Amino acid sequence: MLIGAICIERRFLMQMLYDSDTFAVVQIHANAGEENASVQGTLPALPQLARHGFEIVDKRSGKEVYLDGSWAEFFQQRLNVWQHKAPTQEEVEDMLAGYAELAHTTVSVH
After folding, report:
1. Which of 20, 82, 103, 105 has CB atoms 3.0–4.6 Å from 65's, for a disulfide?
2. Which residues in 40-55 are b (16+ Cβ under 10 Å) and which e?
3. At residue 36, what are phi and psi to the nearest 5 degrees?
4. Strand, helix or coil at 99?
5. pTM here?
6. Is 96 within 8 Å of 25 (Cβ atoms)?
7. What does 45-91 look like in DSSP terms, one character per residue?
8. CA angle, residues 77, 67, 47, in degrees to nearest 5
9. pLDDT tens digits for 3-31?
10. Residue 40 DSSP one-character state
């Protein structure tokens, strides 16, 4: 199911895009707290991400992959298409399974 819960943690804006028994997808916006820090006249205390990205967690294998750069742009384009044509859960899971093949990092906390 596609969901849109938003939370702010460590100055990064993270948005849960998808959560099922098999996969979770989180969009991470780079430098989300930077504007707030500059308004208050302080520097961010934590390192900032260079680019936006998506974290895809394969719950079956316990592994995750982080997409940024051109991979994230391509993934965003697919999400944009889905806004106009709502995919079935099977279509979403099939697409995420393709990205899960790239996952090599073991999830330690989620």
Report:
1. 103
2. eeeeeeeeeeeebbbb
3. -65, -40
4. helix
5. 0.71
6. yes
7. SS---SS-EEEEEETTTTEEEEEEHHHHHHHHHHHHHHHHSPPPHHH
8. 120
9. 444 444 445 588 999 999 999 999 988 76
10. H
